[in-house]
Amino acid sequence: MGTLQNRPFQGRSASVLPSLPKNGGSPPELQNRQLSAISFPTVEIGPHRAVTRRGAEWGGMAVELVQGMAHHRLDYRFHSHMHLLVAHEYGVRRDGESYVEGTARSTLRDVTKKLTLVPAGHEYFEWHDSRTPTSAMYFYFDPTALPIEEDLAGVVFAPRLLFEDAAIWSIAAKLRQAIESPRGPNKQFVEALGLVLKHELASLQSGASSPDGTLRGGLASWQQRIVATYVQEHLSEQIPLGTLARLARLSTFHFSRAFKQSFGTSPHRYHTNQRIERARSMLAERKQSVTEVGLSVGFSETSSFVAVFRKITGQTPSRYQRALG
């Protein structure tokens, strides 16, 4: 009785938490902590028979847990008065595309632990020809129920596509654990986590709302683009910090601080993470051996590649490749 119901999604309303008795009362074990069914518009997914969806709603927000089958093309669409946060728990696609109105399209193959923010009124669309089963969390927020602290008043949400944020991800994961607890969801705890998540998103946006796209203490949009592009074009090389700082026209000290503010990690770790992202895609294509992939992304020794890959993904390259089927 304590877990979310798991059944194929049909229509535009999500599956709900444990069913209420026919007389309308709450089961004794869920009294004072029963979460309601989702009444908000939700992401349209097709074909609906290839996914399972379950969800809950409380305090001006809702969450859906969505799992899709491997080796199916799945299409996702959303356009609503609600804000949407997509948290991809895992998923590798053979082909596909992701888009949020106001951002550049992305064909990133491995979307594991990537986040997408869709502000109210923006169109969201993506499709996956999935190599592996997929799992994602969808968080829906009523704009009128966001935090109203003075320093967050008037925050305008900006679209973000397939980004990483450790703080937001941690809260999202805790929400999932709380909602799927075998003892049932504790309404007060879930509402508190939801408030923290909303506050974190609003704080993120308040830092990104300056006219020139500069985060408070972070890099301007043009600096982010030129640095990220340079890293992608030189993945297999050692990139001196000074080179990136000169591209951004900053001292190495100020560049390091601004980079971490904008990307959530250090330049060196960002470079390493991007190498492993490229390696994941290459391993999924199965055209090269593990050693060849490691060399292609800049590791001169297979042992070093395996160690870094395992540290970031939690598994060796060979095991990762076998899991793709």
Task: Give a written overview of the molecule.
- The chain is α+β, with helices and mostly antiparallel strands and 325 residues long.
- The strands form 2 sheets. Strands 1-3-4-10-6-8-11 form a 7-stranded antiparallel sheet. Strands 2-5-9-7 form a 4-stranded antiparallel sheet, with no helix packed on it.
- It starts with 6 loop residues before the first strand and ends with a helix.
- It has 3 domains: 200 residues, Jelly Rolls; 44 residues; 55 residues, Homeodomain-like (Arc Repressor Mutant, subunit A), CATH 1.10.10.60.
Write the layout of secondary structure elements.
Blueprint: E1 7-8, E2 44-46, E3 51-58, E4 61-68, E5 73-78, E6 83-90, E7 93-100, E8 114-118, E9 124-130, E10 134-141, E11 160-163, H1 166-179, H2 187-206, H3 221-233, H4 241-248, H5 252-263, H6 267-285, H7 290-296, H8 302-313, H9 317-323
Antiparallel strand pairs: 1-3, 2-5, 3-4, 4-10, 5-9, 6-8, 6-10, 7-9, 8-11
First-last Cα distance? 34 Å
**N-to-C series of helices and strands:** EEEEEEEEEEEHHHHHHHHH
Strand content: 15-25%
The secondary-structure class comes to alpha+beta
Oligomeric state as shown:
single chain
Q: At the first level of CATH, what is the class of the largest domain?
A: Mainly Beta
CATH topology of the largest domain: Jelly Rolls
Biggest sheet details: 7 strands, antiparallel
Rg computed from alpha carbons, rounded to a whole number of angstroms: 21 Å
User: Number of folding domains?
Assistant: 3
Give the number of DSSP strands: 11
Which shape, going by the Cα principal axes? globular
Mean pLDDT: 79
- Catalogue the unreliable spans: 1-36, 208-215
Architecture of the largest domain, according to CATH? Answer: Sandwich
Looking at CATH, the homologous superfamily of the largest domain is Jelly Rolls
The strands making up the biggest β-sheet line up spatially as 1-3-4-10-6-8-11
Helical stretch tally = 9
Overall helicity: 25-40%
